[in-house]
Amino acid sequence: MRTISTGYQARKQFYPFHARKQRWGVGVCHVRAGKTVAAINDLIDAALRCDKPNPRFAYIAPMFAQAKDVAWTYLKQFTAPIPGVQVNESELRVDLPGGRRVRLYGADNYQRLAGISLDGVVLDEFGDMDPRAWKEVIRARLSDRQGWAMFIGTPKGINHFAELWNHAQTDPEWFTIRLRASETGILPQYELDSARKVMTEEDYQAQYEASFEASVVGSYWGKQMSEAERRITSVPWQTELGVHTWWDLGMDDAMCVWFTQDVGREIHVIDYFEDSGGGLPFAAKELQNKPYVYASHNAPHDIRVREMGSGKSRIEIAAALGIRFNVVPNLGVQDGIDAARALIGRCWFDREKTEQGRNALVSYHKTWDEKRKVFQQHPHHDWSSHASDAWRYLAVGHKTGNSLVQRMAERVRMQETSSSPGQSWLAA
């Protein structure tokens, strides 16, 4: 046994974090609290103490580029004093004595983690990640070695990070820590006062007071989704009404579908479906397997574009599969965002079936220009984009559609489909 100093001096606010015994943990921290430095050193310490063969530890940021910009310098700095350390710049990897390894990853390509085993992992800014990264890939990587996971970040509204925090507070198997700038003393009061003068109260509460209730910084619909919380409940499918689907068809066969019913002036959002890689045939099968009787299927204008390989448009491919699409008018992105903002106030969401889609709506935000320190007038493209694009098409379809004609057409469709149960998933 040998004592090695990495030069890290933990802030007292992070003592409970480093001393935790639980396998799982959530840390909600204000900006500039030092969470990334603490997380990197926690991984280094765990790797050096691990007595399993070839220990593997990982730090995961929302984007690979973020991992490199935010954490790579720290990892090299605090492992430099360790004898025998080897640095791999291309893989953002540090190899320690005894076959130990700490490596940085990005959740933007989380599938590359499939097949590896991990003894411990830190997911930094988890609220900015696609939640499927944890559920579909990373969690399973910890199973064979009974590894641990720590989720850290600054709040970005009521999203999957907030839900994880709420769950962790009621589960004794989870460690939790919340650091507010008004309580930690890490940042001087004059700095907090200065920041508060130039920031909106929402932004200040989220970034400095670690408040989940404040909207996502730059969020298009965060405020409206927070106000809709009382309308997020159990929303049953009404069998006497047809179901409308609203699609976004992205590149590489990525697609998202919202399922709605018009009930008077209310819009009941009863379901949500998302897939990447299965394409239209898989989506068609999924829709067919649901019990709904469909009144219409709606897709964006680019569904008419012909693919280079087949020479067919996706609207033609869908028709061959039995899905007959209406084409949503091509309204500008900002107009669609405005229409979507207004639509939320009329919507009731099924809590369980629409959770993934709602998380995306909360997270959808403007692109931040780091050089100019302003928000640009276009959306940031990330995991939340497809669901949010589909939501825009839903709003545009409702805004531009003739409600009387739609209701008459729906009544005819319902009469036709009720007499042909074998074709009940199709739309005329």
Kindly list the characteristics that best describe this protein.
single chain; 428 residues; alpha/beta; Rossmann fold; Nucleotidyltransferase, domain 5; 2 domains; eight-stranded mixed sheet; seven-stranded mixed sheet; 16 helices; 22% strand; globular
Describe this structure in words.
The protein is of the alpha/beta class. It has 16 helices and 17 strands. The protein has two domains: 12-208, 3-Layer(aba) Sandwich (Rossmann fold); 227-423, Nucleotidyltransferase, domain 5, CATH 3.30.420. Strands 3-4-5-2-6-7-1-8 form an eight-stranded mixed sheet, sandwiched between helices. The protein has a seven-stranded mixed sheet with strand order 9-15-12-11-10-13-14. Strands 16-17 form a two-stranded antiparallel sheet. Strand 10 (243-249) and strand 11 (254-263) form a beta hairpin. The radius of gyration is 24 Å and the shape is globular.
Give the domain tally: 2
Give the strand content.
Answer: 15-25%
Shape: globular
Helix content range of the residues, please?
25-40%
CATH topology of the largest domain: the name is Rossmann fold
Which strands sit side by side, in order, in the main sheet?
3-4-5-2-6-7-1-8
Distance between the termini: 74 Å
**Helix vs. strand class:** alpha/beta
